[in-house]
Design goal:
It is globular, with a radius of gyration of 22 Å. The protein has one domain: Up-down Bundle (Growth Hormone, Chain: A). The chain contains 18 helices and no strands. Helix 1 packs antiparallel against helix 5, helix 3 crosses helix 5 and helix 4 runs antiparallel to helix 7.
Length: 454
């Protein structure tokens, strides 16, 4: 990528003060809003495979694996594609105003998810959630970018990623408990989380205007598309996004495929009996509908718990390691976790928990650095636009993940009864992605060396 437009010096940034001991207020407010948005999203999304595949008699939608995979691939694809446009509009209209629009869309949409049945009604309402989230995402990430400096950016993104996982950890646990009352409660609680962000927004100040300078440029769609064309001509950046789509295709199997695998193949009853012996009320809260197993969302919650415990520590320890090599290492660790699920010597609930923790270490190494890399190279005045383009890799990753999950579970698992082949295939995909990341790193270093000697 052309680095001539990288972020300006610390002294040139409106909110970033050199050697400042604290982050700006907007940084903290944005992180708080991220928690509640993630409470809503992960509270629903972690349970989405179960909800969509369960029979109507069990409170679900009764969709096929193909229908489930289509929704889980196409809707998030749209969600992460739209920030290409919404990020640019945020730079022009102002972050605060666009945050309000996002919350106004998501609040009723989350509630309506629990009121509709059938493939197309559910698809349509979930699309509204995606539109609201697509407005929110690039703005909150851009706020973190614009309120941090070169010196504290790694720690800032580590804190931000930890806040994501506060929502990711608490959201599914609360959703898992309230689904014992009714699946409708899952969606009502998600809508409630978003309404809290209307209150937090009152304390948010747009980082683009805190320096008292008037915003420049009009929000005309022709300029938005011109900006898009300019960024997409950067072949190195596009290559980075395409390679990272493989990472996100693997990452999302934790939410799309693992809950079904736990439900259908993993015996978690020994762990449940131990929990019930310690506390019958907790055992009842985390049990599946038949009361014999642990509900899968409480197993996948170890992912978020691990990140909450270790993310800031890992971010601090790795802050001087270049971004791309660390992403490669994290992706290889993720491949190892998939191999563990398919072929590991330690099976059952304990084995799955161990694989989830290994997966989480890979995620903690790679995911924050993948965003930090974009923040390192993008022009600061176009922060939201470039972060919007970063989400393209997530869009493609979700599309691949959803379609692949639906096909693989229907074919390799239900038809062939070979879940080991499913996890082996995902492990291979992760290794191929790591090889692509390594190629990208070597190519980028080679190009920089050539520029140095010219």
């Amino acid at each position: 990528m052309d680095t001539s437009n990288t972020a300006p010096s610390v002294s040139e940034r409106p909110e970033a003060q050199q050697n400042a001991p604290h982050f700006a207020r907007s940084f903290y407010v944005a992180n708080a809003m991220e928690i509640f948005e993630r409470l809503a999203w992960y509270g629903f999304f972690t349970l989405s495979s179960l909800y969509m595949s369960n029979s109507p008699a069990a409170g679900g939608l009764g969709l096929t694996d193909t229908e489930r995979g289509t929704i889980q691939g196409v809707i998030p694809f749209i969600l992460y594609l739209l920030p290409v446009f919404t990020g640019a509009l945020g730079d022009r209209y102002g972050y605060r105003k666009m945050f309000f629009v996002a919350f106004a869309i998501m609040t009723p949409a989350y509630y309506l998810l629990g009121q509709v049945t059938g493939f197309w009604p559910f698809f349509t309402v979930l699309l509204l959630v995606a539109v609201g989230a697509a407005i929110f995402k690039p703005l909150v990430v851009a706020t973190v970018s614009r309120t941090t400096t070169d010196e504290n950016r790694s720690v800032g993104f580590g804190i931000f990623y930890t806040m994501i996982n506060v929502g990711g950890f608490v959201g599914p646990i609360i959703a898992g408990v309230v689904k014992g009352i009714s699946w409708e409660w899952v969606f009502s609680v998600a809508a409630f989380w978003i309404t809290i962000n209307f209150l937090l927004l009152q304390f948010y100040a747009d980082p683009a205007t805190q320096d008292s300078k008037p915003s420049t440029g009009s929000a005309r769609f022709n300029s938005v598309f011109r900006d898009i064309g300019t960024v997409l001509t950067d072949r190195s950046f596009v290559a980075y996004l395409l390679i990272m789509s493989g990472f996100w295709a693997c990452y999302n199997q934790l939410f799309l495929t693992l809950p079904l695998y736990i439900r259908d193949f993993v015996d978690t009853s020994p762990i449940l009996h131990q929990v019930e012996h310690f506390s019958p009320s907790i055992g009842h809260a985390i049990a599946s509908q038949d009361g014999q197993q642990i509900s899968p969302e409480f197993i996948t919650a170890f992912n978020f718990a691990s990140i909450l415990a270790l993310q800031i520590f890992i971010s601090r320890r790795c802050r001087y390691i270049p971004s791309i090599p660390l992403i490669v290492i994290g992706t290889v660790v993720m491949a190892a976790s998939f191999a563990w699920l398919g072929f590991g010597f330690l099976a059952g609930g304990v084995g799955v928990i161990g694989a989830v923790i290994v997966f989480s270490v890979g995620e903690m190494l790679a995911s924050p650095k993948s965003q930090e890399y974009v923040a390192e190279v993008m022009p600061t005045e176009r922060a939201a636009l470039f972060m919007g383009y970063y989400f393209l890799s997530m869009a493609l990753g979700f599309l691949i993940a959803g379609l692949l999950s639906g096909w693989a579970y229907a074919t390799l698992v239900r038809t062939m009864n070979r879940p080991d082949l499913l996890w082996g295939a995902f492990s291979v995909l992760a290794l191929v992605t790591a090889a692509g990341q390594l190629w990208y790193h070597r190519r980028t270093i080679g190009n920089k060396q050539q520029e140095h000697f010219q």
